[in-house]
Amino acid sequence: AQSVTQLDSQVPVFEEAPVELRCNYSSSVSVYLFWYVQYPNQGLQLLLKYLSGSTLVESINGFEAEFNKSQTSFHLRKPSVHISDTAEYFCAVSPLSGNTPLVFGKGTRLSVIA
Amino acid sequence: DTGVSQDPRHKITKRGQNVTFRCDPISEHNRLYWYRQTLGQGPEFLTYFQNEAQLEKSRLLSDRFSAERPKGSFSTLEIQRTEQGDSAMYLCASSFSGGGDEQFFGPGTRLTVL
Questions:
Q1: Are B101 and A105 a contacting pair at CB < 8 A?
Q2: Could you read off the pLDDT of B24-61 as tens digits, one per residue?
Q3: Listed residue (A81, A80, A79) closest to A111, CA to CA
Q4: Is there a contact between B48 and A92 if contact means CB atoms under 8 Å apart?
Q5: On the CB side of A5, how many CA atoms lie within 13 Å of its CA?
Q6: B contact set with A (CB within 8 A)
Q7: What is the pLDDT of residues A3-43, one digit of tens each?
């Protein structure tokens, strides 16, 4: 079985400041890793994913996450946040591929302050 | 591609009543998932289908819950004899098993049991 821990339930940060949202996972098998974002009153959207290859993955809107197998982590970072990044962020794992049920963390609410 | 749609978006019911939710996946997607999300928690897997076959059910899915995908297209999730603990957001997602590993989520159906 897999589990995901998001260590921070809420992260307030000032606009243009850097941010890191932490995610640790536990699994007895290899996993694929995902970050989903949920903007207010919208459905979940995939932000980025790690399947294999380079351990650093990037999204189109400036977020990046690094897979660290030894620390079983997949932290999400952005060097400079915008007001529009205010949302709930969910880390998720899948034991084989994204085409099997996802196991989600509890989420981190990122609030960007002007 | 109109995305994953869910109907209704909101449902208020009295304890003991039956409710049914519908999910229409992206048309070419053969996999369909149901998740449940309660306040302050990440989505939790309930069940999923490949075409019309129900491949897996979570232990969270009590006997009062039943899901169908009769023609391998839309799916319904029925809850019989609703309880207050069933109040949650019910999320549907779809994916294509032969394609990329992303699950596409619908906007959800928010159920309130009074």
A1: no
A2: 999 989 999 999 999 889 999 999 999 999 999 998 88
A3: A81
A4: no
A5: 8
A6: 4, 31, 33, 35, 40-45, 48, 56, 58, 91, 93, 95-97, 100-108
A7: 999 999 999 999 999 999 999 999 988 888 999 999 988 88
Q: Where are the beta strands (DSSP E) in chain A?
A: 3-5, 10-14, 19-21, 24-26, 32-38, 44-50, 56-58, 64-68, 73-78, 87-94, 103-104, 108-113
Query: From the list A32, A43, A101, which residue is nearest B48 (CB)?
Result: A101
Decide if B60 contacts B43 (C-beta within 8 A): no
CB B69 within 8 A of CB B77: no
Q: Nearest-CA residue of chain A relative to B93?
A: A44
Q: Are A31 and A51 in contact (CB under 8 A)?
A: no
Residue B12 phi, psi (nearest 5): -115, 130
DSSP B73: S
The token duo for B57 is 């059910």
